[in-house]
Amino acid sequence: MKLSLDPQAINNALDGRWAEARRQGRTLALEEITHEDPADDLETTRAKTLAGVELMADTGLPMVALPPALGGRNEHATNIASFEETVTASPSLQVKAGVQFGLFGGAILHLGNAEQHDAWLVAAQTGKLLGSFAMTEIGHGSDVAAIGTTATYEVEKDEFVIDTPFRAATKEYIGNAARDARAAVVFAQLITNGVNHGVHAFFVPIRDEDGTILPGISIEDDGYKGGLKGVDNGRIVFEQVRIPRFNLLDRYGAVDADGKYTSPIDSPGRRFFTMLGTLVQGRVSLDGAAIVASKLALDIAVRYGLERKQFTTVDDINETTLLDYQQHQRRLMPAIASVYASAFAHEKLLNSFEEVFSGADESEENRALLETRAAAFKADTTWMALDVIQECREACGGAGYMAENRLVGLRADLDIYATFEGDNTVLLQLAAKRLLGDYAKEFANIDVGGAARYIGTQAAEHTLYRTGLANAGLAISDVFTPNLGEKRIRSGRLQRSLLETRLEVMVSGLAQALRPAMKMSAADAADLFNSNQHEFIEMARAYVELEKWKALDEAMREQQDPVQNKLFRRLRDTYGLSLIEKHVGWHLMYGRLPMLRARQLNETLNRLCAKLSANALDLVDAFGYGDDHRRATISTGVEAERQDEAADYYRHSRAQEDYAVPEKQLRKAEKAAKKAAEKDARKAKAGK
Amino acid sequence: MKLSLDPQAINNALDGRWAEARRQGRTLALEEITHEDPADDLETTRAKTLAGVELMADTGLPMVALPPALGGRNEHATNIASFEETVTASPSLQVKAGVQFGLFGGAILHLGNAEQHDAWLVAAQTGKLLGSFAMTEIGHGSDVAAIGTTATYEVEKDEFVIDTPFRAATKEYIGNAARDARAAVVFAQLITNGVNHGVHAFFVPIRDEDGTILPGISIEDDGYKGGLKGVDNGRIVFEQVRIPRFNLLDRYGAVDADGKYTSPIDSPGRRFFTMLGTLVQGRVSLDGAAIVASKLALDIAVRYGLERKQFTTVDDINETTLLDYQQHQRRLMPAIASVYASAFAHEKLLNSFEEVFSGADESEENRALLETRAAAFKADTTWMALDVIQECREACGGAGYMAENRLVGLRADLDIYATFEGDNTVLLQLAAKRLLGDYAKEFANIDVGGAARYIGTQAAEHTLYRTGLANAGLAISDVFTPNLGEKRIRSGRLQRSLLETRLEVMVSGLAQALRPAMKMSAADAADLFNSNQHEFIEMARAYVELEKWKALDEAMREQQDPVQNKLFRRLRDTYGLSLIEKHVGWHLMYGRLPMLRARQLNETLNRLCAKLSANALDLVDAFGYGDDHRRATISTGVEAERQDEAADYYRHSRAQEDYAVPEKQLRKAEKAAKKAAEKDARKAKAGK
Predict the structure, then answer these.
(1) Shortest CA distance from B142: residue in chain A
(2) Where does this protein chiefly localize (chains A, B) (predicted)?
(3) Which domain range does residue A383 map to?
């Protein structure tokens, strides 16, 4: 059952194209200052996290994405891959650095002009100019287009006036704002010559060099959160704050001295989504960060599960190791499989990100596909991380609840990943709308009902091919290609067919259900859309699941070493069959899976999990972390040491003359002796 | 759709028999000292929590369970019901008080003799003698029988010697140990005259009155955990600590001056489980506490969901309220239904607890049923609470992550409930074994494989009737009574039939699968058992789900008011159909549900959730909490205030002459004007 594997070779496959950057990130994560200590108070933790951000700046990695003219290499995935790994230091560091280099720096890079780059970009990416990214408001999170902050141009002074017109327009949850940021990229409604041109980004100084808050600006500290203690989130209110016209980041919308507005993108909706689209990096990196956190949790829980014993099952002395229990295998092995699938899917996402942002293929279509995937993957993966970390924490029992074993901290920090940089529920709807638009042209510009509005015109011109909906466009009955002849439930073709068909049927079913909306009043259309929202979201999850499965399937095919290939096949089947088991009701209801085949799922998964467990240590070794990354007492071998000591004690005790015999054993012996005596008595009687 | 309801009447139904005690608990929870502040340091939080425990002592409630001779009323559920409600103050308080009065005091009450009661019990229940409950060790949590601490009787000195023979035998995670406890009930292997009589409880002083740790005892602080900051957990090591023979809590096992051991229960296994069984109170109260935490989270999230708006869906101005979105309804309404089901099931559990401990029916059978239910309910409910609180936190977006809105704190505190007082996975196996034992006598004493050993002989003599397995004992084919004639998927008979059949088929299926184990070697039997462990655990969950559904169904029948009855029917159907949807694959695979019927589930649930949402406020009002219990900024109405202010601002703006017209609107108008001009031009041309 156990395969003979080389964890380093698996690690090479997992680390992929950006292996070097990942290893750089892991090295940085060894620096003690980057490690959170629950005993530290808020300000100490924030100061340490800032020191970590400065260390990241010192590596030069945040500069890599810049154009060569500014000292960069126009490489976009490198620093993301590297930063993701700093989650092993602390998620606070990953998030605070993400705000500084990805959001603040990234907005200047992608939305600013060359002069603005000269003015602020290098300072931002070297950590000399600390910044915030002030988009979200108390009143509007997911619906960015509806934010209330205004930036009104005054011709007389050649200035914009940034203002918070009511409390709901207060910038909220803004990272770096409570303590460190000297400037912020502020998103506001650009108003000039009596017209509101929609949301644009502005560079707004908020503190002087000494850290004193500038006039007209008030900042409140968000204080304690569910986690991310090292990130200083805050609320910002602007009261008629004046900035030079120069400070409008004007790549997609400029204002001249007379207040005349121009934009390279004519449609206001399209312009807005193009601007937001340049900030996709945040979602890409959260997808990766959630994978790193999941790996770390599994690394800890598997090591403990391989040492910890509980209950004697076979004899009276030897206890059974946790990971030999079927249920323990079922808790951790599917989690490992889905982390592997997510990691290979993330690698593809990074490739696509690099392609778009390096300019290798920045077609509208490719960009939209990247945005769709980033949204959908981020949603699925961050939820996966919460489930995986929680499973790991519970699998470690009470020890899992101790801060020193890190699982609870990871869980608390990752919690917010499900709702920041786009609420997962909203993100899935974005992806769902794209799927519908690919399916049938009339849906491409659908703008009815709730969150569909969120994605506006962005998903307009794409082909069916890119989302992989090969069968889309056919009627439901057409896609029912018979696959039931497949002999084994583990067949990859069967898995793919089931996952694909489910998605296709959902898409075409929803298209049918929603088509009448095109001719309805806005209110009726919204109602119709809303009455299908749950299915709509489920459809997007079906899409991510298929994409992740395909990524793992491809990775399997790439493994030349036959033993490693076999391991990957086990992983792929575990991931695939877990998905099919999760949705088995659907597959049965739609007649895709015969009942007898469906009943094999549970047993097949049991066997697969047992097989994977035999290589559990290889599977987590392959993540590439050491004790200094895990920093969890229970994964250092102490448990085995203590057990050996206890076993020695008992062995020694039993050899002593004064060993206290268990009453149970004594009674057994007494019973036996009594029986023997009776037997003797009967014998003696008979013999008489 | 909206029903006209009286929340107070629903509250009366929910609060049930111990309504007065619940309200007492809620009143106590208003005391400010009992509220945790995330800004407080560890020691301040601990001190405040202790002050809360003292306030609880002052209410006199912990005395109520005592016999009248000691000033009590021999009422056992009263203080549990009351304490559960203190979760609204802080889960730390509920847990620390639970350790003091339920575990420490409870062990003295249930395991001690009258003289011991005189010596310690009143002091414990009035909070004058602070204590710990030292059962778990680093090496053994779930498997209590295997703990390593020894208590060896020395005739010469008439004393027991308490000793920690190796590191794994260190008492671990012991509440009250790090700071406050002056004594501990210590569980240890009782050794006298060269025989080990198994685990017994001993009263061991650990600190003097000033708080100085006594000689021979070392205590280490567990420090930071995932939550429960107010509970001072610690590790205790005993180095040959001597206590008088008197300190053995000897109700189930006594030692005379000569070291002779006697017990009213002959079988060592049965004796052990009887001792542990008296401590069932912990699990009962965690079941209730998890329900209170879930109610509180829903109370906060529903109020916010009824105010918070996001995205315009119907027109360009009015945004849609979160709880009008189908997905939001699907996130929160099934959660409410399952909290209602759990609450009514808990009420039955409390009744059974009162029956057993007051002596009204302390039959072996009734006691075993209580233990089974307490174990199974606690597992299911604590997991439910984690899911519900997390759903609530995410449903509140970023605001849900702020400590000031309490959801993250509740989630962090409740996390450990899934693995303390019995790991949920182990507890479900305990229940599962009972189900098998009820099904067929030969399983009653099954003692193979992993955790089955844990429950030993305890579930021996019970009838089929008590677990409600009316059809058990029949072959699988027999239980397939046709129910498919039922017209509506919402039929209560259909729901019950599906839930019951699933359980019955699982039980008989597992009985068949495991029967060969009876004749196997220990190793083979353990293997066979292990290869069915996952199903075994699923079976126990099917049992709890059915029990909770039945409790809610009964509660529905008890509602005389027709409108309230209708509400309860909606709740019951939502709970029932959610369960059926969750396991729809099973119902289809086993031919219990036709595909067409199964396909109705999703839509029926959508409609039910929409209906329940119309009364969402009534449903949470009925929990009986006020702003001072919720203590969450987002549930106080601030969100609506801010929105009103924003709406006023926009209304006023639009009325102004210098209103900045949105570019979008302008372009629409321009297009229209252009068209009109062209039309005019055409007309003019034509007219020419």
Answers:
(1) A310
(2) other
(3) 281-621
